[in-house]
Amino acid sequence: MKKIDTIIFDLDGTLLSTLEDIADGVNYILKKYGFPQRTYDEIRSFVGNGAARLLGQALPDGQKTHDFVKYLEEYKKYYLEHNNIKTSPYEGIMELLSELSHKEYKLAIVSNKNDKNVKSLNKIYFEDYIKTAIGESKNIKRKPAPDMVYKALDELGSALEKAVYIGDSEVDILTAKNASIPCVSVTWGFRDKEFLKGQGAEYLIDQPHELLEFLGEELVSEGGQI
Fold it and tell me: Which residues lie across from 49 on neighbouring strands?
C-alpha cells in the first residue's frame, strides 16, 4: 500500500497559468473606475489570498476604497465570464494527472479562487481526473485555514496521514502545515524558488513529472522512462 494515496493541488500557479486573465480582470476594473492599472508582476504578488485581498491590494486605498464592495462584485462577475481567455495548464500537467489517475491516486483541488471559478475551470480542463474541486465561499474558511483540505479529504474518503498538498505559494505552505500534511512547493508558479525557501518550503520541484519521483513512482512514456 502506498504511503501517500491522495494528492491535493492548488489551482492558480500550480495546475493552471491564470495570471494574465486575473490581471486583465483586475485592470478592467481599475481602468473603468479611473484607478492606475497594475503590472503583471504586481498582480502576481497579490494572488493567493482570494479575490477581496487581490483587489484590495490593487486599489490605491485598499479595501477602504469607496464602493469597494461594488468593485469586488463586478470583478467577480467579469472574471467568471473571462476566466479562460489566456489561461492554460502548465506544460506537463495533463500528463502528470493522467499518470496519477492511472496509478489510482485520489486527486482534488483546493483554492482560494472563488468556488464558481474553481469548478468551471476544473470542468473545462481536469474533469477526467479530478472530481473534487473546492474554492472560496462563505460556507468555509479560506486557506491558510485547513478547512478546505479537510473537506476535500472527507469527500475523497481519504486519511490525513496519506495525503500531500501541492502548491506554489507561502499560503500553500502554511495551509499544509495547518492541516498537518506535507507540502510540495512548485517553482513554475507565482513565487520563485528562493522566496519559497525563505517561507520554509521543505520539498521543491521544478517540473511536474518530478512529483512522481517524490512519490516514488516512475513516469513512463511511449519512448521509455522520462
Answer: none
